[in-house]
Amino acid sequence: MYWPFGPAPVALLSLKCKVVDTRLANSYNLRVLEAVKAWLAAPQKDDGWSLQGRLMNDAERRGRKEPARKPKDAEPGSRAQDLKTGSNAPQQSAGRSIAVAIGTQVRNLRRKLDLTGTELADQAGLSAGMLSKIENGAVSASIESLEALARALNVPLTTFFASYEEKRDCSHVSAGHGVLIERRGTKAGHQYQLLGHSISGDIVVEPYLITLTEEAQPYTLFQHAGVEFIYMLTGKVLYRHADKAYPLNPGDSLFFDAGALHGPEELTQLPMTYLSIIIYPRG
Question: Model-level pTM?
């Protein structure tokens, strides 16, 4: 039964169909008193709004799992939508805590020395659990703990803070000012201009503008670590990778594992230019 004045007073539940004490008239006006009498006299049903119905529905909800709510997508035109790119790369937080930065440095230094967490913890006089928390940035290590770790790793204490204010690489090269690089094949009319470079991080990215002149000769014995991406700008070429050859025209691209033999097999139209972006782990 619907109670028109909000949640019904708990005391009314014990009244059932008894006559309401007329003393309530001192607290309620006549209209409210009539509504109370009508509510008590009416048969209770589960209409979803009555007190009994609400109690029953609550019990049912407790007995079943609520469906998980899906996060709302950013609305078109919103700032969140504007800041999205087509890349699936995870977004980086605006900044990271000093504890996380220190922990990352400790872990990297330990791995460079090929030490296990237990071995470093023993040498620094720390528990393995505490070292794990420090490396994961879960705790702010004391100066004493950091000094012990610095001694065990044989590095200055300041090394742990080196990456906290880490600078982000940015390389700008004006048109025609790429650094000419001597590489295998250059003597055969292959000219390489390095358009940028990365000076830090675990990954090296080398973007080249490659020009093959009229004197260029086919060369299919390039082989190196990492992956390579090629984007044709001018000219035409049949480019070999491992046991397959791909015809490339302006606007075409090729992305491949550079560990296999590769290079231009047939120089269909010269001169030609293409972008070559080589990515490999820093040694």
Answer: 0.50
